[in-house]
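Hi all, long-time lurker, first post. I run a small reading group and we've been trying to get comfortable going from sequence to structure in the token notation. Rather than ask abstract questions, I figured I'd post a concrete chain and ask someone more experienced to write out its structure so we can walk through it together at our next meeting. Sequence below, copied exactly:
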Amino acid sequence: MIEALRSAVADPSRVLTRAIDLHANAHDASHFLLIPQAVVVPSTAAEVGRLLQASAAQGIPLTLRAGGTSLSGQAISDSVLVDVRRNFRDIEVLDGGSRVRVQPGVTVRALNARLARYGRKFGPDPASEAACTIGGVVANNSSGMNCGTTDNAYRTLESVTVVLPSGTVVDTGAADADAHLRALEPDLHDGLLRLSRRLRDNPASVRTVQHQFSMKNTMGYGLNALLDFDTPAAMLAHLIVGSEGTLGFIAEAVFRTIPRPAFAATGLLVFPDLETAAAALPALVDSGAATAELMDAVSLKVGQALTGAPDVVRALTVQDQAALLVEYSASSAAELDERQGARQYLLGGLGLSEPAQFSTDPATRASLWQLRKGLYASVSGARPPGTTALLEDVVVPVPALARTCTALTRLFGEHRYSNSVIFGHAKDGNIHFMLTDRFAAPDELERYRAFTEDMVDLVLGENGSLKAEHGTGRMMSPYVRRQYGDELYSIMRELKVLFDPAGMLNPGIILDDDPQAHLRHIKTTPEVAPEVDRCVSCGFCEPVCPSKDITLTPRQRIVTLRAIEQARLDGDTGLAAQLAKDYDYESVQTCAVDGMCQTACPVEINTGSLVKRLRRDDAGRAENLAWSGAAHRWNLVTRGAGLVLDGAAKVPDAVVVPANRLARTVLGHDRVPLYSAELPAGGAPRARPAPATAPDAVYFPACVGTLFGPAGEGSGVQDSFALLCERAGISLLLPAGIDGLCCGTPWASKGMAAGEMAMRAKTVAALREATRDGELPIVCDASSCTEGLIGALDEASRELEAAGHRPLVVLDAVQFVADRVLPVLGAVEPLGSLALHPTCSSTRLGLNPALEAVAAVVSAEVLIPENWGCCAFAGDRGMLHPELTASATQRQAADIAAFGASAHASCNRTCELGMTRATGEDYRHILELLEESTRIPPCD
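-- Answer (accepted) --
Happy to help. Here is the structure in token form:
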């Protein structure tokens, strides 16, 4: 089997068979788990075609996977898993944005970012838009909160290029698509026409299909395609929608886009109970509400604990309440005002338990949507340790929603499921509910089976569908026949055989006659580490992870750790050893510990915290002693490293590079940084004379400025910041002994606990003295050091603050300049264009608005790459593992090359080095450029 797979791809190394590859890639967002025998990462549609041919010829079941955010088990396999996320990310905007051609590995968020400049957006709007990909959206007919059944994937799809299980490629948008299909796949072509006639000739079947697809519905195959279209090519295109990877590979698709509303108002309507909330829906829909999202009392309680939860949620005393998140959108302010006027009249008669407040403020609206979009992962993250979260997804006609919710609540009690939540897209009658249990013991599985039977009877009794938007998967495959009846189920069976005669493409998905299929292969989640135990494998973290295309993502780091623990619990010491052997490089050494995963995680897991602890646990005594010594002599260490770079800059690369590589080979890549030609000479000491006037702030220049000098002929950020403050009349004081001080990040990232504690204690004491015990703000000039300093002071100052000492306030120099310097600066000589690199720290600190404000003063054209992300230089991580930075920056470097910008800037020296290496352009601190552009020219 493995040889057949390797012969199908140009690079055999992209057929992965190590234990760590199999277990890391095994998980999607569902509650099911199968371990593949091989993972293949193809680079072209032709390679996928050869893989499909090998699968059919050798009887090897094959499953396609993109974003891995599916919730019904349709993206897992115990055979061959094909990863189409990494190499299928092209977007082509057509007709001024009214149409778009897109490949399956593109996330919905990335697609919408490209379309935003045209005032357009993608129709489907799933809550997982940050991580789910277009391939999955089409394969599952995903919809979301706004699109309903009018702008979902089925309705907005124009054409699709499909690789069939035979290897045949069909572009349904081609003028000769039908002739091509008839010539190459005559049985499929004729079979589609035959099944269409069979369906159309049966009035009862037509009524059933029309009713089922008048609602959101992803149960079974989309038989409405056989009614809605007349040509086999068009039928094929729309049967692929919602087929969950069982009929072919979606190589690319063309969609009609929809207008992006320029104006919106969002509010949370709180009702005394679910029934009252559901009863309000018809009036809200009639009033023109674009969205009405339901959240029950348990959802609201979980939401109250989230960072950034809206004030209206935090202020609730939750008992039996339910809420509807309602949004009105419009193309103009006048249109929105008109709708708001009608809304105000409406709200008084809805039976609200709290006054309703609607807001057009982007930050307020974002906090409300963050609450809703992260609800699944947040609720499941709050589950008891060791349990699994199982999310159901049903739809009923809207008039039946209230009694369905009431009946579901009763079923939760009857089957002893506590703290179950109900939430979802109430406007469409589409609700989600969650069960948590271990789903392992016979009594647990029997309880789940009995609950499911009762739930199926309830939903089908209301003429609903057992799956609205999450796909049938293996979760509801045993119930497709019950929902549609024997005749329509038979048509679905024949469709599968027409497309996939060998039955090798994602078997067991959508159609499965095993009545116990949904009870098998439920994953277990052993406890492994408090930092990550609440992870639900949603995958939201993966798009922002800088190591996603080279080693592991945060989700994969966590699930692999769980696999190691499960192997130990099972007594499989061999598997545990195999996984642990590769885990160090794949997970620990190539994690940038940048914390970007936390910005995307609905339960705020920072996998970098876990990695830091693992490094700390693995740190040897000699290393700890060395780094502890460095903490006490940091001035000598930084100056010495700077002198080494000074010397290297004067010696030919032909001498330095071989010696450096030999040292890395002998002493280890994790200990000796890689020297490369773009590295600058060393920097200057940080100490400066005390100010002549009373200081306005304490300036903490980052030690990285001593390690690495400025780019080109620049003077560096320390001099630039001081000059800017001087022009603004701001006096700066540097702490005593500044050359020996540091925020502690180098020790924290490497897990050197003793040195970290020593350095932080020394730094905090110096800053307490310099700030007059918190009277003055502290300003740092490197965003990662600002973040590190905030963390160090937060931990070290808690007891002092409890005893009455003032808190120490830390600001980044960019924020300080934006607030205190920009308003009083004089004339500016702007640059032509500026490529700007926000950093992971500036993102986590909320610094990017200030960074962009400063950049906008420097240049009228500020360009941020569409594929922006963390550069993964991560202090010295990019020097220890340059392959990590190369992978992380590959796509954004291509964007930057296309910009042709006049200058390049960031706000952290090591990130500037990483981006310089990636692009070949000198990246400088944004404040250096601001200082130069505001210099007063000398008099003649």
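A couple of things your group might point at:
The longest strand covers residues 263-271.
The first helix runs from residue 2 to 8.
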